[in-house]
Design brief:
elongated, 0% strand, 101 residues, Helix Hairpins
Length: 101
């Protein structure tokens, strides 16, 4: 049961759910959650290939960098969303098109 195909299948499901969340949602928080699912699927792939590719540490190091980048992305994106909510009183992505001007 513990083989590479299982990990890749779960990562593909996570990636698909993340893409579905990013494409279909209009709420900025839901879009961020979809991006986090995509990053988690990448982490799962890094760790699976590290485990089944000779147990080298490069996959673990890349996964650690992705976790650090995801935490920074979440902090910056939530600060931007709070600022958008303070200015427009909405976090709907379609309603905030006035930012382009």
């Amino acid at each position: 049961m513990d083989n590479l195909n299982t990990y890749l299948f779960i990562a593909a499901i996570l990636f698909s759910l993340g893409m579905f969340g990013v494409i279909t949602r209009r709420n900025a928080i839901a879009v961020l959650m979809g991006i986090e699912l995509i990053l988690n699927s990448a982490n799962l792939n890094f760790l699976a290939f590290a485990k089944f590719g000779g147990m080298n540490m490069s996959g673990h190091i890349f996964a650690l960098f992705v976790i650090i980048m995801a935490a920074a992305e979440a902090a910056v994106a939530l600060a931007i969303i709070i600022n958008i909510y303070n200015n427009f009183k909405s976090i709907n992505v379609d309603e905030v098109r006035e930012l382009r001007q």
